[in-house]
């Protein structure tokens, strides 16, 4: 009988099997077998028909690889058990923003740079590189699994400095990957495979997607203290104590610069101390560098933390992204670099990263890699990029200052808003709680993440007064 031949695994199909066993008297409901086996006869070619013990028509499709498939009708879905996922806390904000028809609306959710006119910005140097690429008529062949060689060279040099001995000695395993997120995910898969006992410790708070990445890779994580709401600054003692207390050999996830969401970075002296503890505890530093050049306006200054660890001879993981500093958000261009203690180690690590990448996405996209390689590899374009990046970073700093001025001038309560000036990078961590952030959106049409973070890269000088009114109202009138 046909039903006996089924290999079933879904909950709906198991229910079918159970009911079949129960015999013809099983009472059909909306989700029962007969409802969806009845329609099988309309499925046509490749479907053979028979009768189940419930007396219903059933159909099976035999694929040539020998598996027996159950042909299902449409009134009960196999996806019945799939619940609706919540909107993403960051990218979901942009969806809500797009749906709002109010002219006053402001999207300060995702960290994406806008011009003073609040328009997306394609860097001139990117347009120039793309024009050259088009003129050259480059082909679209597959890249090797590790990505474009010229990109991998350029990206490691940009991160570590072209003269860094670790590059000269071949100690860096670099794999081009799918921007910052994809690079983090690849590294997480590597940790899961080769350090199955290790856990990752991440700052509290951190970029929301970090937790998803390690969860999906099945890498256990816990948090170390980072932000102190009382001082609106770094909880340095707490951070050091928690890194010290983590099991030896933990991976310590650090934001290379422009910590997201707080905008608070350790000082150079504090970085030294952090490196001391990590070294003592034989932890592995794992840097997420998503904003090189965007914190200070200088690529070298923003790589200070990573270079400090590398200079100490430590083995280090670094994920890089060109979404923000070259405005290549949708090109998905970035890299994972693993600085190793010996050349053969770097070769082995690289071979395993490739092995992980191959079944995940095979090989990375070429367009963004060529842009980066062309810009970084050409002294004139490199200079132009640095200038444009300084301008972008400068515009964000101006907006930061203006927002502080507006808040200080308008708020009669005497609250000290100077923490905004001490924060760096794209974001300001306002201290607004969820209810207050909801008020920002519901009443003022200011879209932001519910942790109180606002992206200053999405703000214009002209909108600072309006935003200050919204913040003051939300802060003082809601708790
Ligand atoms: N790491 C950090 C700390 C980030 O803030 C982001 C992006 C990434 C990695 C990944 O960026 P990429 O994959 O595009 O290279 N964070 C954004 C966007 C700007 C996002 O959430 O995806 C943010 O709004 O926080």
Secondary structure: number of strands? 16
Number of helices: 18
Q: Kindly report the spatial arrangement of strands forming the biggest sheet.
A: 5-13-12-11-10-6-7
CATH superfamily of the largest domain: Type I PLP-dependent aspartate aminotransferase-like (Major domain)
Characterize the main sheet: 7 strands, mixed
Tally of separate domains? 2
CATH-scheme architecture of the largest domain: 3-Layer(aba) Sandwich
Taken from the alpha-carbon principal axes, the silhouette is globular
**Small molecules in complex:** ligand PLA
Oligomer: single chain
Q: What does it look like?
A:
- Its EC number is 2.6.1.1.
- One of its GO terms (molecular function) is L-aspartate:2-oxoglutarate aminotransferase activity.
- It catalyses: L-aspartate + 2-oxoglutarate = oxaloacetate + L-glutamate.
- The structure is a single chain.
- The chain is α/β, with parallel strands linked by helices and 479 residues long.
- It has two domains: 89-121 and 389-477, Alpha-Beta Complex (Aspartate Aminotransferase, domain 1); 142-377, Aspartate Aminotransferase, domain 2.
- It has 18 helices and 16 strands.
- The strands form five sheets. The chain has a seven-stranded mixed beta sheet with strand order 5-13-12-11-10-6-7, with helices on both faces. It has a three-stranded antiparallel beta sheet with strand order 1-2-3, with no helix packed on it. Strands 4-15 form a two-stranded parallel ribbon.
- Mean pLDDT is 88; it is low at 1-66.
- Bound molecules: ligand PLA.
